[in-house]
Amino acid sequence: MKPFTWAMGAALALSLSAGASYAADTTLRISLQLPLTSHLGQNLLLFKEEIEKNSNGDIAVEIYDSAQLYKDKEVPAAVGSGAIEMGVASLTRYVGDIPAVDIFYQPFLFDTAEKVLAAVAPDSAVRGPLDEAIKDTGSTVLWWQAYGGAIMLSKGNPVKTPEDMKGKKVRVFGKTLGDFVTAAGGAPTLISGSEQYLAYQRGTVDIGMTGVSGVKSRKLWDVMDTITVTNHADIEFIVVVNTDFWNGLSDEHKSIIQAAALKAEADVRDRVMQIEDDAYAAAEDNGMQVYRPTDEELSSWKAVSQPVYDAYTQKAGQLGKQVLDAANNL
Fold it and tell me: Taking CA 31 as the corner, what is the angle to CA 26 and CA 33, rounded to the nearest 5 degrees?
């Protein structure tokens, strides 16, 4: 990292710690790829406020937003190795170690809010085994951050059916989403969230894929003009802590952190629908067209999706079968 950029990051972290870190017994540094103004950033600020208030300053929280320290794809290794205490990463970033995590990216599997809520409950038959498997990477899951449904971005015209994707380069943020694009005739390109804006601006890809809240927080309306509301996957981020670091904390500090994590998770989950509504409104206010596919058009997407499920069951092993069966039983 360039010295000037590092200095800016350090200054921001010091300001965020609100003077608490100098007296703190424990400091939690958290890496976030999104801006602090995003709803995930605001959720971390809620966590920070709870921690520092309830620990009387004994625990300080420093948030390094906008990928100052690590890109999204680097967070699992950074936290797992202990290079940083905590980080926020898209769930799909763990697919290399745990292919089963991509259950949430199986096309149209979680097609109602009720199914999503049931699947992401902390002890559900879908989430529970995934949290347990992530422990093998050196990280412990503290809470999940809802990000909403996956949408598509384009210029000029909406992406109504797979025909509109054929031969196009498409930004994806996970292997299973890439399989979905391939099944629809497109060419997937893996691009980190923090690199989206430039990719769209430079024409690196023709079609984008993200959550609508990211359109607002990253001002993607400057470089794309159309949203197609497919909601073909449920985007989840997870906040993880290095397991060795976690195990070394006192029971009192663990209790304070767990309570703050529970509050943060409930808050972001309760607000995600309103966050998405606000983001759609902001997109339209900034000149974007929002297109909602017809039932017939959605059926055409579902019709090309079977190879994605086939690839998942082959790669995800017994754990994948276990969570897929649980998802189908919701």
Answer: 160
Contact 319, 102 (CB under 8 A): no
Give the separation between CA 153 and CA 28, rounded to whole angstroms.
35
pLDDT reported for residue 23: 60
Residues 75/87, Cβ–Cβ less than 8 Å = yes
Cα–Cα distance, 275 to 216 (Å, whole number): 10
Q: Is the dihedral of CA 134, 98, 265, 172 positive or negative?
A: positive
| Residue whose structure tokens are 């259950």 | 103
The domain that holds 127 is classified in CATH as 3.40.190.170
pLDDT < 70 regions, the chain: 1-23
Mean pLDDT of the chain: 92
Tens digit of each residue's pLDDT (9 = 90 or more) over 144-182: 999 999 999 999 999 999 999 999 999 999 889 999 999
The secondary structure of residue 136, as a DSSP letter, is: G
Helix (H, G, I), strand (E, B) or coil at 86: strand
Domain range spanning residue 276? 3-328
Q: How far is the C-alpha of 146 from the C-alpha of 148, rounded, in Å?
A: 6
Helix or strand (DSSP H, E) at 319: helix 306-328
CA 319 to chain centroid, in Å, comes to: 21
Determine the Cα–Cα distance for residues 242 and 231; give it in Å rounded to an integer.
32
Look at the chain and report how many structural domains it folds into. Answer: 1
DSSP letters for 37-58: TSHHHHHHHHHHHHHHHHTTTS
pLDDT at 2: 36
Which secondary-structure segment (H or E) carries 242? Answer: strand 234-242
